Amino acid sequence: MTAEKTDRIEKIRRKIASFPKGPGLYFFKDQNDKVLYIGKAKNLRARASSYFQPSEDLLATRGPWIAEMLGKIETADFLETDNEVDAILREARLIKDIHPPYNTDLLDDKTFPYLEITTRDDFPGVYVTRKPRTGSRLFGPFTSAKELRSIVVELQRIFKFRTCTLDISADDPKRSFFRPCILYSIKQCTAPCGAKIEKTEYKKIISDLVTFLKSKRSVILRQLQKEMQQASSKLEYETAAMFRDRIRLIERLDRRGEPDLDVQPEVFASEPSEALEKLQKILESPQPIRIIEGIDVAHISGSDAVGSLVKFIDGRPFKSGYRRFKIKTVAGIDDFAMIAEVVSRRYKYAMAGEELWPDLILIDGGAGQLHAAQKALKDLQASSPEQIKEKKVDTKVAALAKKEEELYLQGKPEPLKLSRTNPALKLLQYVRDESHRFAQHYHHLLRSKKIPNQK
After folding, report:
1. pLDDT digits over 358-386, tens only?
2. Are residues 210 and 224 in the same domain?
3. What is the pLDDT of residues 228-279, one digit of tens each?
């Protein structure tokens, strides 16, 4: 090992020695501050330092690709989390967003499951799902589908809700002639399918379940612990073990994220074909809208400003096309100028013919943000060589404002108000919200640990 390599590794070891001993994520980066690898850990210091043991041990336990990565690492960083579950969820999200070259897992579209309660139904069902329905009450995401299914079985024994997929209506007179399944016979379901329970009574069960899932569950846990102790004192060890397992499962309900915080955009994607057809008509485009790029910026009082760009192809996120930008030329609070900088930096390559233009550029904002983007594109065109100036750019530019959800289109004096159920609006909201999430997520990291830009 050369002296230079020894010094580099020793410097990294000293940096890792300052890591906390709690849970979180660690990041290995190259000389350009690009993230090479993201990992999660119960003990950040111990896990990260384990990569810098003698090379022969490392090759034996983790393979030759680790040695290749170690040759490129210049520094390490970390991000503390409240618990292991938070670390698992954040690791998955960051790997999907950043695509570090030495992470081979979690790069596909596989998502974490939710516990779904179809509260809009007359008799809500309770399900484990990766594709929730609109209007359902969600808990999670959970880190283990197998564990969640076991939890649902135990909860059903307590609350006796239905898990079937039958379409049950309270005013259906045929229910009284329907024969319930075996779950009713073993007292694990109240059988609304067979009119064995009234709608109001069943709704009360679901309300109690929701309260239980939102609470600390201490009452039920105390009751189960009491029953376990009673069984044990009677030498009924199998029964005591059953109660012990139930207690462990219910305690695992806390091994979950929050739907609004641990967003999984892939879960809520809808079928895009109809949306793209309607969008083409709205934009009055002679060609199909296949590539959409969404742009947003994030900052706090002008500090640590960042920009994001997300790419959608045929209505689906194309993660390899996502980009991040540290704002370099704007001081203070000026969202318009920040949008203009991101647009200029992104599309100078397209203007030079080095990258493809999207069919639509969607800005998160209103008329001001739209005009800033249009001016940036116009300035790019003006500063391009003569042969490039003559080439017509057919890309459409639009902006979608939050709250009122008004769509601002280039060349249109007034914003367009689409129906909330319009598939085109839902697709644009998906792109807009994904660019916002991507910007905020990166901004949070910059503020937390100053993890550097990937571009």
Report:
1. 999 999 999 999 999 999 999 988 877 66
2. no
3. 999 999 898 988 988 888 788 788 888 899 887 787 877 776 678 899 999 9
Q: Quick one: how far is CA 14 from the chain centroid? A: 33
Residue 76 burial (CB count, 10 A) = 22
The DSSP-derived string for 80-106 is E-SSHHHHHHHHHHHHHHH--TT--SS
Question: What pLDDT does 451 receive?
Answer: 46
Q: What is the per-residue pLDDT for 158?
A: 86
Closest CA to 303 of 345, 334, 343: 334
Cα gap 344→65, rounded to integer Å = 37
For residues 169 and 123, state if they share a domain.
yes
Within a domain: residue 35? yes
Q: Are residues 229 and 278 in the same domain?
A: no
Copy the structure tokens of residue 388.
């490039």
| Residues composing the chain | 455
Residue 265 in domain = no
pLDDT tens-digit map of 88-143: 998 988 888 778 889 877 666 688 999 999 999 999 999 999 988 878 999 999 99
262 within some domain: no
Q: Are 29 and 78 in contact (CB under 8 A)?
A: no
- pLDDT given for residue 93 in this prediction: 85
194 and 81 in a common domain:
no
Question: 284-338, pLDDT tens digit by residue?
Answer: 999 999 999 999 998 765 567 889 999 999 998 888 899 888 888 887 788 999 9
Buried b (16+ CB within 10 A) or exposed e, 264-282: bbbbebeebeebbebbbeb
Cα distances (angstroms) measured from residue 438 to each of 20, 310, 329, 338, 424: 27, 8, 21, 16, 21
Q: Which of 337, 385, 389, 390 lies closest to 365 in space, CA to CA? A: 337
Q: What's the gap between Cα 145 and its chain centre?
A: 17
The single-letter code of the amino acid at 300 is I
**Residue 280, SS3 per DSSP:** helix
Angle between helix axes 423-449 and 84-98 (nearest 10 degrees) is: 110
Q: H or E stretch including 324?
A: strand 323-326
Phi then psi for 405, rounded to 5 degrees?
A: 55, 45
Locate 284 and state its tokens.
Answer: 């009055």
Please give the Cα distance from 150 to 227 (Å, whole number): 20
Mean pLDDT of all residues in 386-390: 62
**According to DSSP H, which parts of 99-165 are helical?**
145-159
Buried b / exposed e along 369-387 (16+ C-beta atoms within 10 A): bbbbbbebbeebeeebeee
pLDDT at residue 438 is higher than 90:
no
